[in-house]
Design a protein that fits this description.
Elements: E1 2-7, H1 11-23, E2 26-31, H2 34-41, E3 48-51, H3 60-69, E4 77-82, H4 87-95, E5 100-103, H5 108-119
Parallel strand pairs: 1-2, 1-3, 3-4, 4-5
Helix pairs in contact: 2-3
Length: 120
């Protein structure tokens, strides 16, 4: 079973993504900010991390920088899912090492398809 970590502070997004990915046979982990995500990543090695940019405590960019420093997490695919849709934000996310940058609002079906493409 593939593992996915969803990191977002918006409860409605977290609930809909969790439901959808569980239906698609993923083991789902939830974090509501970057620090909680980093704590989960000490124990779990997900295949994919869906990461919001604007969050309390540690934002998505800083979280990704920490993820990229961890040798154990090298295989993880990272997708930014963010309302920050300016070109400079997208470029920053991709330059930090994200595999994909998806802007909100988004299509859950398309996101699931993109996740499947990344982990094939």
């Amino acid at each position: 079973m593939k593992k996915i970590l969803i990191v977002d502070d918006e409860p409605n997004i977290v609930m809909s993504l969790e439901y959808t990915f569980k239906k698609n046979n993923f083991e789902v982990f939830i974090a509501r900010d970057g620090q909680e995500a980093l704590d989960i990543l000490k124990k779990q090695l997900p295949d994919v991390i869906i990461l919001d940019v604007m969050m309390p405590m540690v934002d998505g960019f800083a979280t990704l920088e920490q993820i990229k420093k961890d040798e154990r997490l090298r295989h993880c695919k990272v997708i930014f899912l963010s309302a920050k849709n300016k070109e400079k934000d997208i470029e920053k996310g991709l330059s930090l090492g994200a595999n994909l940058y998806v802007t909100k609002p988004f299509s859950i079906k398309k996101l699931v398809d993109q996740v499947h493409e990344l982990i094939q």
